[in-house]
Every structure is written in C-alpha cells, then in structure tokens.
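Note to self: keep these together.
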Amino acid sequence: MDSLTHLCLIISIIPSLLASSANAQLSTTFYATSCPNLQTIVRNAMRQASARDSRLPAPILRLFFHDCFVQGCDASLLLDDTNSFTGEKTAIPNQSTRGYEAIDAIKTQVEAACSATVSCADILALATRDGVVLETVPLGRRDSRTANLNAANSQIPSPFAGLSTLISQFAAKGLSARDMTALSGAHTLGFSRCLAFRTRIYNETNIDPAFARSRRANCPASGGDNNLVPLDGTPAGFDLNYYQSLVNRRGLLHSDQELFNGGSQDALVRTYSTNRATFFSDFAAAMVKMGNISPLTGTNGEIRRNCRVLN
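Structure:
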C-alpha cells in the first residue's frame, strides 16, 4: 500500500479536528470567493509534481515543519538571500531542504488564476496537505516580510537532540509531547543524510547491531556526508514502520530513538507501532496544531507574488 492509500484513511478523521482546532482567524473557506479553484489547482499541481518525483511529499512536509517552527507558519523559509536581506535557507537545519521549485510552480499557477490573492504560506500548507494529509486545512495566513536565521539555527529540532530538549522545543511552540511524538512519525517518509546519523550508527549502544552494520555500508566513518539512507524500512509508505523500528532499536536518527529509550514516550511509541487509527488521528490533530503556530493575518505581512522575494 503506498503513502496516498494509507493516508486516505485519515480523511474521515480530519474534518472534526479542523473544526475544533483551527485558529479562530483562519478558515477552511477563506478563499471560497476570492480564489474558488485554489484547492483544485494546488491538488493537481502536487499530483503532477509527485508523479515526477515520488519522494516529494517528504521534503514538502519538512519545509512546512521548518517554516512553522521559525516565526510561525509565514513562508519566511521560502525567501532567498539578497545583498540586503538574509533569509533562513542557509541555516544549518535548512541546508538540505528541497522542494522549493515545486512551491514556485504551484505559486505561478495560482497567480495566473488569482493574482496577488493567495499567500505563499497557505500554498505551502495546501501542498503539504495534498502530499501528506489529503484534506482541507485552515487558511488565511499572510507572508512574512522578515526572516530569522538565528532562530532557524536554534529553534528547529536537531537530529542529535535528547528527549527533554525535544519536548521543550515543541512545548515552546504550543505543541505537547504527544504532538511531538506523533509529528515525528513524518519520518516514516523520506531519507536522511549520512551526516545526520553517522554518530548514532558508529558510537551509540542502544541500536540493533545488525541495523547499524547495514547502515554503515552507505555511510562511512568519514566522507560521504550526503549519502542518503531511508528513515525507515518503507520510505514511500505512510505507515507504522517508523515506530516499529524504534521499538526494535532501529531508529536512524539519535532524536528518533530518544522517543523509545526508557523515557516518557515509550508507551505511546508502542501504541503507535501497532495502532494505525490512533497514530493517524494524533498525527492529523498535531498537523493542524502545527499549522496554526503564530499565523500572520488581517493586514499583517503581505501576499507575495513571488515566494522567494519580498514584494
């Protein structure tokens, strides 16, 4: 079963979550009059982009996560550096991000249909929905005119972080430890660079030896920093394999295995490893909460015509 088939199961869960969790200033019908074809445009564009690059949903979700954790979900991450402006793309956690071209392509199509109407922040939220969640999301965000490189370096959770640090960083954004553990399930999709997990597979002891040996084959003790390895055994499937891997001490990143290492999240990880309905429900709820982190609304910010530059 592929990731889209798995995630269709979430559809019946999300509408009630949206109704109860959405920020009061955001609305699932925000563009119903001003850009009535928006949902179709973004959905079709994401399907086309994903057909060309089946790995795209994971990077788009990562962009959304990294954007929301710095200044809120305001598309600050999408801004390019200029001679007079420093963005967030060169922050250490963002140097391996990708998917910007897909957002650019969607923005171009949306601008052709509804000029200067839909924010890049909302386009990123919708692209994430169509790549991962497959349901409506609250809209009405506006785009930031600022970025924060220092915050990107300090506030985005590190693959080397311990459990207490992870819980604190998520709590600072209004997300609970349960939200954190559910959102970490996004690592059931995609790949990681050798640089992010080398220390774990060579130096840590809470790891299955056979798993460590298998990952060393594509991640030497030195060099090969950009070699890619799947985050779990089914990198194209949105399933329970990520949590099952943690239970078996096969978490690829240090921060992953911290969720199941004799700490407060062990019981929840065991639940997610066997209970699809609970994980999907919690993941959907946590995604909505994350999407509501400090949105710019009303007359704050702007509606960028090009997601990479200020108007």
